[in-house]
Amino acid sequence: MSVVIARNLTKKYGDFTAVDHINFEIEKGEIYGFLGPNGAGKTTTIKMLTGLTPITEGDAEIAGISINKNPREAKKKIGWISSEVIVDDELSAWENIEIQAKLLGVKDWKDRALDLLNYFGIKEFKDRKAGKFSTGMRKKLEVTMALLHSPEVIFMDEPTIGLDVNTRASLWNLIREVNRDYSVTILLTTHYMEEADALSNRISIINKGKIIATGTPDELKEKYGGDVIELEIKKDEIPIDKLDQIGKTIKKDGKITIRVSNAESVLLDVINTVGSNNIKSLKINKSSLDTVFLNLTGGSLEDNQEFNAKRFYAMLRRATR
Ligand SMILES: Nc1ncnc2c1ncn2[C@@H]1O[C@H](COP(=O)(O)OP(=O)(O)OP(=O)(O)O)[C@@H](O)[C@H]1O
Ligand SMILES: [Mg+2]
């Protein structure tokens, strides 16, 4: 069963098309990654799915409910988490949750909130000011708030941006656990290849408003990636032609790189062709999402511009009023 279905979903700002007729389906229980550079249209897509910005063309369904036809009902099925936001430092965790419950119109929220706080191990800190929380605790509070109304799907717009390596790793675990223990479907956007790879069951790569590839991380690597064998040789005269039949071969400064679909399966062939006593060093670089992205877009990821969380939250308040 699909929890999110987007059909020709399109957003135009004047003449500019930020999201261009995209189609995707997210299955129940999936962690789905949206991977793309700055300005690709990731946040705009999430804003259309959460009803924060009008859809220009096309539609999307959340748990079978059309956003165009029934935005209020669709919104009830959604929780969202962004990079910093939603937590008010001056209020206690509990007060923050209470505000969230009011914003979402959830009535019997207290037991659910206590269960969630207990699950995340922060129940004993519920009366502490959120401003005194560590980053990790804060994330747990944000997830508690997003899960309060038992949504079918949660959207996470760049959830780990600005986190140190350890906090990021524990947030990855948290995302996996929440997905498993609360059977909640997750759509996350990220700039980090390894994040999409580590967390997502499936990924859509989005660039300039268009989805240019969709698949499991392995499928994408298989299709658009490619391993690279790097060789350093002792003598200069080697049969480049023969190597080129194995995979695209480039020779530069005594270093040879061969791009192949699976390095292990051709390794012996390569060694025999070059001659084992002619090899100074040999290295295999396995295909990664980085290679996939580069192959697909021909460009690299630029530095991310900070997501404007405050503005997003202000918009949510307006939208839920
Ligand atoms: N309110 C707006 N008015 C005009 N253009 C907009 C508006 N919001 C976004 N855009 C443009 O739409 C495009 C997509 O922006 P969006 O924020 O969805 O990208 P993104 O993939 O989330 O990028 P990032 O990784 O930087 O967060 C960008 O070119 C952006 O400048
Ligand atoms: Mg964005």
Automatic annotation (TrEMBL):
GO terms for molecular function: ATP binding; ATP hydrolysis activity. Signal peptide: none annotated. It comes from the Archaea. Keywords: ATP-binding, Nucleotide-binding, Transport. SMART domains: AAA. Residues 4-233 form the ABC transporter domain. GO terms for biological process: daunorubicin transport; doxorubicin transport. It holds the Pfam family DrrA1-3_C. Belongs to the ABC transporter superfamily. Drug exporter-1 (DrugE1) (TC 3.A.1.105) family. This is ABC transporter ATP-binding protein. It comes from Acidianus manzaensis.
